[in-house]
Amino acid sequence: MLTIFVRSVILFVAAVLAMRMMGKRQVGQLQPYELVVVVLIAELAATPMGSVDLPLLYGLVPIMALIACHGLLTALSMRSERVRVWLCGQPTVLIRNGVICEKQMRKMAFTMNDLMEGIRTGGMLDPSEVGTAVLETGGQVTVFPKASARPLNPADMDLTPAREGLPLPLILDGRIQGENLQRGGLTSSWLDKQVKAMGYHAAADILFMCLNTKGELLTQGKGRTDSQLVSVLNADETGW
User: Fold this and answer.
1) Rounded to an integer, what distance in angstroms lies between the CA atom of residue 184 and that of residue 192?
2) Is pLDDT larger for residue 36 or for residue 240?
3) Handedness of CA 20, 26, 27, 28 (dihedral sign)
């Protein structure tokens, strides 16, 4: 019994490491050859896991071979467009200028129910408002509304909004994020000054502290049910 347990743990760890080596992707974003690799890894790990008579290497070696093949195919697809098209396919337009491309749908074996589901998944209820719909190589449908149905944006009103960018988390669960401090051109002494100004003794007392590109500092202490948002920098001082 202990042998089966140990073998299961080893094969589980090997399968997890193999999936991590394939990169961070959701199942719906996998390319066809990547999905095949995932299925085969699961099958290869399950067989030695349930049969003690089979050597453990009968599962580990094929898994490593699949990862090597995946790495080779990925490298080839990045270097050659022909290989990339052959392995992954190309995006297919399902709706163009509000008109359903029936020929393309048949070619991709895509039904009207699939198309309606893709439109709803794209956040649209009325098919008449869809300008373009594209079937991506990963299988998901990207939907773009007609110009008359899209939300109003600042450019439509000749407005220039303030610059936006990713905020910098400076303290997470009491731990100072040194890399983000450097990215923002900030120092530990500056951070310590802000911590004291917020009424805390040290960074360890803070659950979350984040600086956005507007120069505003959002802070919430541990055990607190409220947060503070104060302006500590001018917008032109935020260059990350």
Assistant:
1) 15
2) 36
3) negative
